[in-house]
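Appendix B. Chain record.
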Amino acid sequence: MSAVSVTRIAPPSRSRRTTRSAVAACAVLGLLAACGSSDDPASSDDPADASQPTSAPATTVLATTVPSTVAATTTTAPPDTTTTTEVPASELTITVPTNIPAPAARTITELLAIERPLIIAHAGGDQELPHSTPYAYAMSALAGVDMLEMDVQLTGDGVLIVHHDDTTEGTTGVVGAVRDMTYAEIVALDNAWWHQPGCWPCRDDDASAYPLRGVRTGDTTAPEGFMRDDFAVARFIDIATAYPDHPLDIEIKVQRGADGETDPSTGIAAAAELARLIDELDRTDSVIVTSFNDDVVAAFRDLAPDVATSPGLNALTQWFLAGGKLHPSDLVLQVPPEYTGIEVMSPDLTARAHDEGYDVWVWPNGASQENPDFYQAMFDMGADGIIAGSPLAAVEAAGS
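C-alpha cells predicted for this chain:
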C-alpha cells in the first residue's frame, strides 16, 4: 500500500464560513444497519441548496494511488476555467476542506460519552448529496457532523471500496457487478450520475434534473473548490485517510454470486481487508463495524478483537425478541424504527438498551422519515444518535 501524500492548494474566494455551532445539531445518528439500511434517500427541506456548496471551501488535495489511469481535472478559480488532462492513475485526488470543524470526539469511547444526540452522515448525507462520494463526505464534514457512515465491499481485484450496492448501476448508470469489476474500471465511473436533489431514486427525468452528472467525466463544471475525482467511487483508505479525526461507522456488505444468491464469503473477505486497513491506519479505537450477516461480524471480531462492533441481524433480533446475550465488543444497537412490519424503536427499547449499557442509533426506514420532525421524534424516544441521510435536516432537529 503506497503512502498518501497531501498537497495544499490556495483556496478559492469564499463568501461565508459554516460554523460548528450552526451545525452542532447536525449530529446525524450513525446509521450502521444491524437490521438493514435505508436505501432510498429522502429529500431535504431545500435540496437545491443542499446539493451544492453555498461557498467554496478552503481545500486540501489528497493524492492517492489507484491501479490504472484516470482523467484528472486541473482547476483555477473560478472553476468555469476547468480543463481536462490525462494523468497517471497515481494522481487520483480527493478535495478536503481545510476549515472543517473539529469533531467533538475522535474515539468511539469519547463519542459515546457525549451527552447529546449524535449526528452521523449516512453515506455522506445521501438524501442531499451524491451517495458515498468524496464530495458528500467533504460537505457533511464541513457541516460539522460527529461521524461518517459508509458501506464497504471488495472489487474483483481485491480493493476495498466505499459503495452500497453490489452492482454499479444504482449510482453510476453503468451496469456491472462489483465483484466482477476491477477498481480501475469502477473508479472511472460517474458516481453522481443519478443524483437528483430531493428525489431518489428518480431515474426517468431529463438529464438537466441531475445537476452533478458529468462532473466526473469532465462534461460538467465541478462545484467551486472541488474536482472531478470528488465524484468517483473512492476506496476505504481514501476516506479514512482524508478524515483522520472523524469516527467512522462502517457496514461490511455481502455480495451476490452469479446465481443471484448472497455469498457470505464475499463479506468475510471484505472483513479481512477492512481489519488489515484499520490496523495499518491506526484506527482501532475510532471505528465501529457491523454487517447484516452475523458470520461476517464474527469473522471481523476474530481479526480485530479490539474494534467496537454492532450486532448482526440475527443476534440483534434474538436480543430484541428473546433477551439473547450480545458479544462484549457490541457497544451500539443500530436499529430501524420498524423492521418487517414490527415496531422496533420505542422508549421501552431505549430504556432497556441503556439499562444494559448500550447506546441506540436509529437509521430511518425511508425517504419519508428523513426530516427534522421525524429525527426529533427519535430523539424524544431516547435515541442516542440518528443515522441521517439529510445531515442538514438533522442539524435543525438537534438544534430545536
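Further analysis of this model is presented in Appendix C.
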